[in-house]
Design a protein that fits this description.
It is built from 13 helices and five strands. With 411 residues, it is α+β, with helices and mostly antiparallel strands. The chain has a five-stranded mixed sheet with strand order 1-2-3-5-4, covered by helices on one side. Keywords: ATP-binding, Kinase, Membrane, Nucleotide-binding, Phosphoprotein, Transferase, Transmembrane, Transmembrane helix, Two-component regulatory system.
């Protein structure tokens, strides 16, 4: 259903039905005839009274005009009464009423008020081409009308000029009212489009925020939970392990669980607040790669880090954070899909040439049990690198290994 603006909702009686009909797209599409509002009834009654008053004034002028015989004066009053009654039909048939009034006003003085009201209604409700034809014909009949029925106390040129100016004024007034209503409809449409665009922008922003949070959750929690899985599996399959090794594995599990809970708490806090929380832990950058590799080594992985970056502290935070997430996801995937292999992480670059991150591992030895995964990690890394202005490629390398290579701009 179409929504009428709040400006028109509380005071619908104050606005014309035609305007409310234009503001209701459902009614316009369905072709329903607009119902008269209280304002319409008041205006129509005023127009009827005005037509009657003008007709009554013309009756007195007919009685004192020696050029009008009594029989013609009686017929004039009959046509005038019918014309005044027809004013109530002006909203339903504005064009038909204006066309019918053209010959009636030519033969009846008392129908003059009703004719002007019909012409005004036509100018309000119909395009200018109809108004131009009907108004032009009425104006063309004015000299002939006063030549056949001259006024008793008004000169012929003055009467013709006055009637022509009155017709033009009525048409101009009606066109002004029509333009004002069209302006209101246009403003309403603009407001509706602005509201729709604002809602779409808000929905898009929310969707992008959810996607960013989902990527961050995957990047952060996947690494922690993989450590939990590896050490829990080691404790399950080696119940006779030395107490020191068991304690180390339990410590890694406890620390990874604590870190995962803290990361999850921060992400949930962002969801509740609706905006990033600057009071949380700082995001990891290039300087945290050593810590990431150390955690992986503690989990039993064989990791080799080749860190050849000139001035790593000068790297933009967004570039460093993206490089860290790429290395983290590469280590997580290698731990899941190629356990026991030696993973090499290579980070090179300098200002002006960009930053290159490469994570590769040889094929695993023996059969690797299937590990559940959605495959969204590499897709999220590709999107993250693209948003940073870089590129990322991944796939198998000659010999059966797997490689993730990314290039990030560093101005």
């Amino acid at each position: 259903m179409g929504e009428t603006p709040a400006l028109f909702t509380g005071r619908r009686w104050f606005f014309p039905s035609a305007l409310l009909h234009q503001l209701d797209p459902d009614a316009a599409r369905a072709g329903r005839r607009p119902r008269r509002t209280a304002r319409d009834w008041v205006v129509d009654f005023f127009c009827f009274v005005l037509a009657v008053v003008v007709g009554a004034t013309a009756v007195e002028a007919l009685a004192t005009n020696p050029h009008v015989p009594p029989g013609l004066a009686a017929a004039d009053q009959v046509f005038g009464a019918l014309a005044c009654a027809a004013v109530w039909l002006r909203r339903r048939w504005p064009l038909g009423l204006a066309v019918a009034m053209t010959p009636v006003t030519f033969v009846s003085d008392t129908a003059g008020g009703a004719g002007l009201i019909a012409l005004f209604t036509l100018a309000v409700h119909r395009p200018f081409r109809y108004v131009a034809w009907v108004g032009g014909i009425n104006t063309a009949f004015v000299p002939l009308y006063y030549w056949l029925r001259p006024e008793a106390d008004v000169p012929y040129p003055v009467a013709v000029l006055f009637a022509a100016l009155l017709t033009v004024a009525i048409v101009g007034w009606g066109m002004f009212v029509r333009a004002k209503r069209q302006l209101m409809v246009s403003l309403r449409d603009r407001a509706r489009r602005a509201e729709t665009e604002a809602r779409l922008r808000a929905e898009q922003a929310q969707r992008l925020a959810r996607e960013a949070i989902a990527r961050e959750m995957h990047d952060v929690l996947a690494h922690r939970l993989t450590l939990l899985s590896v050490h829990a599996g080691a404790l399950e399959f080696r119940p006779d392990a030395p107490p020191a090794e068991t304690a180390r594995a339990a410590g890694v599990i406890r620390e990874s669980a604590h870190e995962a809970l803290q990361d999850l708490r921060e992400i949930i806090g962002v969801l509740r607040a609706g905006e990033p929380d600057d009071s949380g832990r700082p995001q990891p950058t290039l300087a945290a790669l050593d810590t990431l590799v150390a955690e992986s080594r503690e989990a039993g992985m064989k990791v080799s880090l080749d860190h050849r970056v000139e001035h790593p502290a000068a790297a933009p935070s967004s570039v460093g954070r993206t490089a860290y997430r790429i290395a983290q996801e590469g280590l997580t995937n290698a731990r899941k899909h190629a356990p026991g292999t030696e993973v090499t992480v290579t980070v090179t670059g300098a200002p002006g040439t960009g930053l290159t991150v490469r994570v590769h591992n040889p094929p695993p030895e023996g059969e690797v049990p299937p590990v559940p995964g959605s495959g969204q990690g590499l897709i999220g890394l590709t999107e993250r690198a693209t948003l940073a202005g870089g590129r990322l490629a991944h796939g198998h390398i000659p010999g059966g290994g797997f490689e993730v290579r990314a290039w990030l701009p560093w101005a």
